[in-house]
Structures are given as structure tokens and as C-alpha cells.
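Internal tracking record. Fields below are filled automatically when a chain is submitted to the structure queue. Please do not edit lines marked as system-generated. If the sequence contains nonstandard residues, flag them in the REMARKS field before resubmitting.
Queue: standard
Priority: normal
Entity type: single polypeptide chain
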Amino acid sequence: MALKITVVLSMLLVATLLPSPSYASKKPHNGKHNQPSSGTGVAYPSSIGVAGPGVSTSGGEINKFDPGTATADEKAAIAQVVPGVEPRSLIAAYLKKLDDGSPLWSRGQLNFVKNESVARVFPARLFYLLRFPQWPLPMNTPPPLGNNNIFVIAKGKPPILVTTKEGLENLFKHELTAVRVAGGARDAVRAWLALSQELRQDGMFRFSNIDSPITVKEQGNSLTATGKVAVDPTFGNSGEIVVSLTFAERALKEVQEIVNLKTGMRPICQSQKLLDLDPTVRAMAEQDLLLMGKAAGPYLIEQRAKSTPAIQHAIDQIWQRIEQEGQ
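SYSTEM-GENERATED OUTPUT FOLLOWS
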């Protein structure tokens, strides 16, 4: 009996001393070490720190919004487009008026939008995307915010907030540079699709590059440009966004957009089923998380922070497999 107890205690000691997987050892996310999303230039976290109870996952103060720091590309764009302006500070000041101290704020991620077409059709504007996680449950954002928020920055003006198709259309009609030729109309379509997909993004869609042919029809003094961006068929996702922009007298007159997006697999409760008593349920949870791969990272990190040590260990193991398999 004494031998059995000694063996058990030895096993527990070894488990305690074993190094944690790389998932748990990464530093808090600070706006660096990002990987770009599908051709839009918007960066998404490839590494976010694992927080315990009462620790902010943003690397900042609990329940406080962390605006992050500007990247080298962002600093160059600021110097060229809005010299002397601090866009992240402007956006943080805007959000401070809405701050109610809820955990929502520490989970928001603010990223600079780097897109050539957007820059060409809005040469005096910079774009930022503020996204709040939507899985396992969407965040309750205070009006006028949504889960996906585009902030438009211009020198000497307050930030413009865009959260809907109507808001995007209003922006294009009032802020777009004059469109004189077919090339400008094509750029406008690419810019629209780059921004529109971000308004529909829930963190799990992967959109294809906007390289499909953009058609332009000329009729009298008007131009109508049409293009689309498709969803990569991963995790059961499917669909596309199609838009037609009609210009007359160099200005945008009409927008026709069709959004047909179907969501597939999403991280909802899989992390809490990794130790389920039913082996079939455990296997299904593991399979789902492995298929979603690194896209499920923010969800796993959030769940780990509020789980029991046993679940935390199971999450660490599944993340280690995700990294090893390059998912």
C-alpha cells in the first residue's frame, strides 16, 4: 500500500514539473506577432497570452481597452496620410465615452487595415478595425458599436464609425475620390469587398483573395463595376459577397450588394467536452478543435482562463497537437 502511494505521489510530482506546452508559455498579445487575414491587410493574433482568473488577456488593465501599438507599416502610413495624428489614441478616446467597466473592453482587438485599393480610393483616410469575439457567445456591445467596427481617420476630423452596409455605403458616397475611368471603378469594388467582408467576419471565415475578374459596363456617362469575394470551404463555411457599384458624373450613385454566407463549424462548447465521460463526445470535441486549428485559438485561450486545472491541461494538449500538425 505504501508503495502504491509513493508511485502516485511521484507521478503527480513529475506532472507538476513538466513544462507547459508552447500555447501556455507565450507572452501576452500586444499588437505584435500578427498574421494577416485573407488579403485585406487586417491582422489577426497568431499568439495571445494565456490568462488566469482576474488577468486581462489584452496585456493591459482588467476590463480596460488596450489600443495596442502601431506597426512599422502603420507608422509610415500615418506620417504620409495624417501626419501628427495618433489614430489609436483618437479611437481609444472615442471608446472611453462608452466604457462601462465591463469585461468587453479588454477583449477588443484594434488593428490597422492595410489594403492597396482602400488606400487608393481613400487617399486622405486611414482605416482601423475593432473586433470583439463572437464565440462561444457574441459580446453585448454598447450602441453604436457592433462586434465588427471600422473606424475611419482623417486629419482634423473626429473618427467615423462604420458597422453596417448602410454606413459603408454612406462612406463611399461621401468620402470616395472621383471615379473617372474603369480602373478607378475596379479599385472601388475591391475596396468595398475588402471592408464589407470584415463587417461580416466572425473570426472563423476565410475569404479568398479579391483577384477574380471585376467587370465594368459603360452606358452613357455611367460606369457599373461588379465583383465578388468567395468564402474558402473550410470548417463547412460557404458563400460569397457580390457587389455592383454604379458611378455617374464621377460619383457613386447606387450600390447593390448580395451577401450569401453560410456558417459552418464554430467553437462553442468543445473545450469543455475534452474530458467528457463519453469517449465519443471526447473524440468529437477533439476532432472539431483540430479541424478549426489556430482559428480556434482565441476561444481556447478564453476558455482556459476560466476552466479547472484538468480542463486547462486538456486544452494545452489539444493546442500542442494543433501546432504540431500545423493546423
